[in-house]
Design brief:
The complex is a heterotrimer of chains A (about 475), B (about 500) and C (about 100). Chain A has about 475 residues and is an alpha+beta fold. Chain A is about 40% helix and about 20% strand. Chain A has helices at about 60-70, 170-185, 225-245, 270, 290-300, 305-315, 320-325, 330-345, 345-365, 375-385, 395-405, 410-415, 425-440, 440-445, 455-465, 470-485; strands at about 10-20, 55-60, 75, 80, 80-85, 95-100, 105-115, 120-130, 135-140, 145-150, 155-160, 200-210, 220-225, 255-260, 265, 280, 285-290. In chain A, the strands form 4 sheets. Chain A has a 9-stranded mixed beta sheet. A 3-stranded antiparallel beta sheet of chain A has the order 6-5-16, with no helix packed on it. Chain A is elongated. By secondary structure, chain B is of the alpha/beta class. By secondary structure, chain C is α+β, with helices and mostly antiparallel strands. Chain C is built from 3 helices and 3 strands, in the order ααβαββ. Chain C has a two-stranded antiparallel ribbon. In chain C, strand 2 and strand 3 form a beta hairpin. The chains are: A alpha+beta (about 475), B alpha/beta (about 500), C alpha+beta (about 100). Chains in contact: A-B, A-C, B-C.
Amino acid sequence: MAGVEAVQWETVIGLEIHAQLATRSKIFSSSATAYGAAPNSQANLVDLGYPGVLPVLNREAVTMAVKFGLAIGARIAERSVFARKNYFYPDLPKGYQISQYELPIVAGGHLDVVLDDGTRKRVGITRAHLEEDAGKSLHEGMAGVTGIDLNRAGTPLIEIVSEPDMRSAKEAVAYMKKVHTLVRYLEICDGNMQEGSFRCDANVSVRPRGAAKFGTRAEIKNINSFRYVEKAINYEVARQIELLESGGRVVQETRLYDPDKGETRSMRSKEEANDYRYFPDPDLLPLVIDAAAISAVRAQLPELPDEKAARFVRDYALSDYDAGVLTASRELGKFYEDVVRRVGGDAKLCANWVMGDFSAFLNRDNLEIATSKIDAAGLAGLIGRIRDNTISGKIAKEVFETMWEGGQAADAVIDAKGLRQITDTGAIEQAIDDAMARNPGQLADYRSGKDKLFGFFVGQVMKATGGKANPAQLNELLKKKLAAP
Amino acid sequence: MAESRSISMGTVAGLAKALSRGEFSSVELTRDSLARIAREQPRLNAFVTVTAESALAEAAAADGLRQAGRAGPLTGIPLAHKDIFCTDGVLTSCGSKMLANFVAPYDATVVTRLKAAGMVTVGKTNMDEFAMGSSNETSYFGPVRNPWDLECVPGGSSGGSAAAVAARLVPAATATDTGGSIRQPAALTGITGLKPTYGRVSRYGMIAFASSLDQGGTLTASAEDAALLLQVMAGFDPRDSTSVDLPVPDYSATLAAPLQGLRIGLPREFFDKGLEPGCETLIRAALGEYQRLGATLHDISCPNLPLSVPTYYVVAPAECSSNLARFDGVRFGHRCANPKNLADLYRRSRGEGFGAEVKRRIMTGTYVLSAGYYDAYYLKAQQVRQLISRDFAQAFEQVDVIMGPTSPTPAFKLGAKTDDPITMYLNDIYTIGANLAGLPGLSIPCGFLGHLPVGLQLVGPHFSEARLLNVAHRYQLATDWHARLPGAA
Amino acid sequence: MSLSRPDIERIAQLARLDLTEQEVPVYVDSLTRIVGLVGQLESAVTTGIEPMAHPLPGMVQRLRPDEVLETDQHERYQRNAGQVQAGLYLVPKVIE
C-alpha cells in the first residue's frame, strides 16, 4: 500500500444512462413494447431482422427525445442521422444496432444536482441519442444453451451520455436520481429499474489529485439500481487505486457488476474486437426537426422539477430541502399541492405530514400515491382538525394510523374513538384541581421551587382526560393554578 | 424453339388484349407458360421454384374475375418473380445456400401489388447469390444460360428473370438493380429492362444487398409492357422509409408522344476504349434512328463517371457487409451442424451458407468500414458519389435523356470472367452511375453482334420514367429488335 | 496496397466468416486487387464535398404514428429457425 507520500486519488465518473421510452410501439416497428409478454410474442418481422424488412421511425419516440433535450437545456439537432453499430451478438438480430453516432438528436445540456451536504453541482450532458434496445439472453434453466427472447428488441431508448463531471459515487447516484426524476416528470420513461426501463453504464477512472489527464477508465455495464451504482463504483474505485498503488495498470475494458458478490469483473466475452464500423443507416433518412416542431413540444412540457421546487420555496415558504423532497416526483408534488389547497393554508404543516407519516406509510406498505390508502382529501381533513384544535398533533398520528388501516375519514375516526380535544376551560380546570388535590406532596414541592414537576402535572391531567386536553390551554391554566396558592 | 408460337409467347399488352377478347383463358395461358418453363428449365435453369399449383389456382381466380367483369389490364397474365422478393409461403432463396430452406412468411410489397392487379405468379427465378454478380454464375442453384447461346451467360444478377422473358417462358418478370442487375441482363438477352428512380418502387420485402442502391424494376419484351407493370409496382409504401410519396403518372398515356426536339446527351465517358467497337457501331446506329425520330444529339461529359466502379465497390460492399450480418444461423437460414460454441455457430453457418463472391463482398465491406479505413474509403466514396451525382444533374440541365451502351460487350461465355473479380465488376461500368445517383435507367435491344443482342441504355433525371418509356417505345415502334426471339432470330 | 494473410483473417473474424485453408490465399489475392481498384478514389478531389448517403437529395425521414398493429405470430416466424424451445431461439451457451 501507499508509503509515506501517499498519493491522493481523485475519482472521475461519467454515466451513460439508458432510458426506455414509454411509447406503445417500438422505435422502428409497430410491435408492442409491453413488459413481461410470452417469449418472442412481441417480436415482429422487423424486430427479428427478417430478410427484406425495413425500419420506419416512431414519431412519439422523437417527440420524447426532444422533450428530454428541452428539459436539460440542450440543443435539438435540426438534422440528426441514424447509424448502424455493427457487432454480432445473439440478442442483436440484425447484427447491427440502429443508433445515432455523429449527429445525435440532443447535444449539450446539463442538470444541477443537490448533494447531501446541500451543495449544488452541475453535471454536463454531452449528448442524448435515440437507439433501439436489444433482446434478452436467458441462461437459467437451460442445459448448455442460451435462449433468446426478442420482445425487448427494438424498444426505443434514449442514451443519455454525461460529461465525466462526477467525482464520487454519491454524486453519480445523485445525478442518476435527478435524471430518473426528470424522465418520469416528462412521462417519457416509466423509470422501472427492476424491469430494466432505466439502467446505466458507469465509466470510472481515478487519477492523482491535481492531475490534468484522466486515468484509464473501465466501463461497468448495465447497472439497474441506485444502490448498485454506488456499490459498483466504490468497488471499482478501490480496485483501481489498489491496482495503481501496487504498481499495476488499469486496462480499458468492460466490466460487469455482480451484486451477489459485490464486485465488478471483466467481461471477456464482449471485449474482443470492438470495431463497430458505424456508418449512416441507408434504410433511414436524415431526421429533420424544424423550429415549429420544437416549439410545439416545448409548449407541452410540464413544470420541471427545479422550477417546481423554486416555486414551492417561493409560494409555500418551504426550505430548499423540503421543496426538493416534495418535488422528487410529479405525483408527490401534485399530492402536496392538493393537500395545501384543500387545507387552505399552513403549507409547512402540510409539508411535514406529506413528507412524514404519509411518505413513511407509503414506503412501509410499498404503495404509490395512486394506490395510497389515504388520498389528498383525507389527509387534508386530518390536518384541518389539527388546525381547528379538534385534535392535537399527537392524537393526529393515532387518527392517521386508524384512517390508513380502516379507510375512514378523520372526523369519523375522531368521533368513534372520542378523540375530540377538550377545549372547555372549566373541564380542564376541574381536571387540574383534581390532580392538585390528589398530589399534595408534589404540589408543595413544586411551589417550593421544583419546577420540573410541571411536567408531572401535565401528565396527570392528560392521563385523566385521555390525552384530549388542548395542550396549549392546559399549559396556560396549569401555570396559573400551580402558581396561585 | 422455332416451332409454332405458343400462346404464352406474346407480350403483356398482347396477352391482355387476347384475354379480354376471350381468345383463351388465363388457365390455358398459364398452363402453356408452365409447360414451356418445364421444357426449357433443363436448358436454361431460369427458375429456382415453379409454383404450378398455386399459379393455376390464381389463373382460375383471374378467369373468375374476368367473367364477373372485374378484370384489370394485367389480370390473368403470368409473371415470374426474381427470387430476391419475399413470397409468403414460398421458398425465397435469394440464390443462396444460406436461404435454400427459407420460406418467407410474408409478401414483398411488389409481390402484393402485382398480385392485387391479378397477375399470376408462375415461379421464382434464378439469380446471382444475393444479387452479387453480373453473369448469374454465383447462384447456389447453378448458372442460368442465355437463350441466344447456351454457352453464354445471360448477365446478372437478374439472369433468371432475363432468360425467362427472353425465351418468352413468361411475358414479364420482376427484377432488381443495384449496379446494373436489370439493365445488363436485359441487354445481354435482348429484352427491355427498366430500373426506376430510387424510391419509386418499394424495397419492402426485397432482400437487401445495398440499401441505398437497390431498386426493383421490370424485365419485359417491350417498353409498353414495362409501363403496364411499373404502373402497378410504383407508388408510396409506408413500410419503406426511402419510398417516395409522389403521385404515379399514367405511364401508358404518354408512350406514343412524339420525340421532336428531344435532346439526347452522349457522355464521352460512355464511349471509352472499353466499349467493344461492334457494340459502339450498333449504339451509333440506334442514335441515328433517334435523329430520324426528331431528336438531337449532344456530346456531354460526366468527368467523375470513370470513378463509378471504385465508388460502387466501396459503397455496395459496405452496405452489404452490414445487411447480411443478420444471417447468423439463429432465426432463419443455414445453421451449421453441431456448433461448438456461439462463435463457431456464427462462423461456420456463415462460412458454409455464403458463396465465394458474397464472402468476398462482405469482407471488402467489412474492411472499408473498419477502424482506420473508414475515411479513406467509405467517406471518400460517398463524396465521389456526390460528385458523380452532380455530373448527372448538370448534364440534365442541358439534355433530356442520356444514352449510351448498357454493357461494354455482348454476352460472354460461361466461366470467361469468373477468375478475376475485377474483370467481372467492369461489366457494370456503364450502369453503376445511375444507381449511385438514384436515376432511372432503361435498356432496350438495339441490334445484334453476330447472334448476340446488344442493349442501348437510356438514363433520365429522377422520376422521368414516363419520358424514358416514351423514348424507348417510339424506338420500338420504329424498329423490331425487341421482337426478335432466340432461335427464331 | 496489398493485404496480408493476417489482414484477411482479421476481416473474416470481424465478419464472422469461417474460411477454409484454400480460401484464404484466394481472398488475399482478390481483396488486394479490389483494394487497388477502389484506391483509384484517391485521385478524386473531394475537399468540401458533402458525403452522399442517400441518392435522393433533400428527402427526410418520415415518421410513423405510435400504434401497435401486430399480433403474436412467433410460431409462424419460428418455422424458419434452426432450434427453438418454449418460444425461445436457441444458441450455444453464451458465457458473460
